[in-house]
């Protein structure tokens, strides 16, 4: 392609916007023109919006308006970085068109406990971006012997910040440990209080170091996950008066990683960002090996350590090894995985042809995602959103083609005659709890 590749990226939450930002900042041989549509959402961090606005053309359209925008057809490809049924809504809406751009989607960084459910919403896209061999192997197991076995994927890796030209040598950095907080890893108040106590103990044992907690979001900002208690409140409630060298720091994480020799987390993708900026990471294992924390993924990193057992940060700095290179490659942190492969794949994919039907099959899935589709459809029915309900039930029917209850409910919700639709909904009703 001689002209620039025209890409539209769609996102709403702060997490997904970070994935778009990383793609826009990637170092590539391709000439790419980015347009980023941020679906309006209360509390979206202004810092992220300001950074995004400098990377391409910024749109602020809701999903309905965006899908009806004739400018969609001007793009070579549309990248969807959303969650749940919204991924499916966009795919179904665009597949109904006679002409449409190529469609791809992806994840933001490391996928932890909900990989199977996340993939189930993405099956049927022209291309799915995965981080590395770990995710690819999991997907292959998921779709084996199903009509989705030929699903196209590309590995785009976890080196999200490219090659950093000027890095401060670790020996010249101030004695500082950056802890990358996650809003739901862990999620229980008890575990989050214990996490804060462990960091406070480490700070007390290391008076010549700063321990900086980088909150995932500032108070009042929105994230995909519901946050009951902000980390600032947990810090105050747990410690009262924290050690003088334990502080919250709201500066961008990349700025903190550039100037710190050590970084710690439970399971954040920031583990790999730290490597980009020459900051040595450690994965905290004090709360145990739990999929709900995401810590199980980092158990093979070679730097999975108990911060409670560390004598002090001077000792940790001296004895901490580099992460296991085989584990890094398995996760997708290697130069051979990059955005260039995404652009190459988009160029080589055949232009989509409207068929009027969507993919159908039996993707191995968690029961929860099937039920979630049905519950969401019932919510749409309650608000008389017949098209939304029909789309959700269509996806459920694709997962379970022989489920007669879903087929009947789908037929009822799709009926255009109000009287017949009402009768069908009464006859097909089932209490889902």
Report the CATH superfamily of the largest domain. Answer: Glycogen Phosphorylase B
Strand content: 5-15%
Kindly name the structural category: alpha/beta
How many helices does DSSP assign?
17
How many strand segments? Answer: 13
CATH architecture of the largest domain: 3-Layer(aba) Sandwich
pLDDT < 50 stretches: 356-368
SSE order, one letter for each helix or strand:
EHEHEHEHEHEHEEHEHEHEHEEHHHHHHH
Largest sheet: 7 strands, parallel
Instruction: Please name the CATH topology of the largest domain.
Output: Rossmann fold
**How far is it from the N-terminal to the C-terminal residue, by CA?**
53 Å
CATH class descriptor of the largest domain: Alpha Beta
Shape: globular
Q: What Rg is obtained from the alpha carbons, in whole angstroms? A: 23 Å
Helix content: 25-40%
- How many domains? 3
Strand order of the largest sheet: 3-2-1-4-5-6-7
Structural description of this entry:
- By secondary structure, this protein is α/β, with parallel strands linked by helices.
- It folds into 3 domains: 5-157 and 337-348, Rossmann fold, CATH 3.40.50.2000; 170-323, Rossmann fold; 367-428, no CATH class.
- The chain has 17 helices and 13 strands.
- A 7-stranded parallel β-sheet has the order 3-2-1-4-5-6-7, with helices on both faces. A 6-stranded parallel β-sheet has the order 10-9-8-11-12-13.
- Strand 1 (5-11), helix 1 (14-24) and strand 2 form a beta-alpha-beta unit.
- Helix 16 runs antiparallel to helix 17.
